[in-house]
Design goal:
elongated, Four Helix Bundle (Hemerythrin (Met), subunit A), mainly alpha, 182 residues, two-stranded antiparallel sheet, 6 helices
Length: 182
């Protein structure tokens, strides 16, 4: 695996592992309870993140087949990453991409944790298999921002994870506060 890709992916993996280690200390009831009507539970947020990451891996594995015909990404792709970072760091709610499908009403913690860890393994294998030329080609497509290379994909995944980690922490706090006041 390219060293820069490996470093970005390791950072993402460590973020996932640290979050899961923290979540493992909580009760399943807290993790599977919605903080408010219309708000996602912790496990639903995990489902969303896993769905986004697994569909990304699937898309890249298919798109890489035509990578030879693509040109390397340029400055515009970098600008879009900066716009994504800014957008995901302001307190505005965005709808999930329609490609991710509907959110299930209930998501089991142990099941989604296992699926998410499997997705990370799949992503690791995919990244390991990409050539140095492929990682610079726009073989990842983010539904709103468009096509990016693998470095930009991993940067976006980290931005996306960081935003939803905040959501997870808020949900836990709200659910815990509700259970102590009821």
């Amino acid at each position: 695996m390219n060293l820069k890709v490996a470093a970005k992916f390791e950072h993402l993996q460590n973020s996932h592992r640290q979050l899961i280690a923290m979540l493992d200390k909580e009760t399943q009831k807290i993790l599977e309870t919605s903080p408010a009507p219309g708000k996602w539970s912790v496990t639903q947020v995990m489902y969303h993140l896993n769905k986004a990451e697994s569909l990304s891996a699937l898309y890249v594995s298919k798109k890489r087949l035509g990578a030879a015909q693509l040109k390397h990404t340029g400055m515009w792709a970098q600008i879009k990453i900066l716009i994504a970072w800014i957008g995901f760091n302001i307190p505005v709610k965005y709808p999930a991409a329609k490609v991710l499908g509907d959110m299930p009403a209930y998501v089991n913690y142990e099941q989604i944790k296992a699926e998410w860890l499997k997705t990370l393994q799949t992503l690791a294998s995919l990244l390991e298999s990409l050539s140095d030329d492929e990682i610079h080609k726009p073989i990842f497509k983010q539904p709103f921002f468009g096509r990016w290379n693998i470095f930009q994909m991993l940067t976006f995944m980290q931005i996306h994870f960081n935003r939803h980690k905040k959501q997870i922490l808020r949900a836990i706090e709200v659910v815990k506060n509700k259970s102590t006041t009821s």
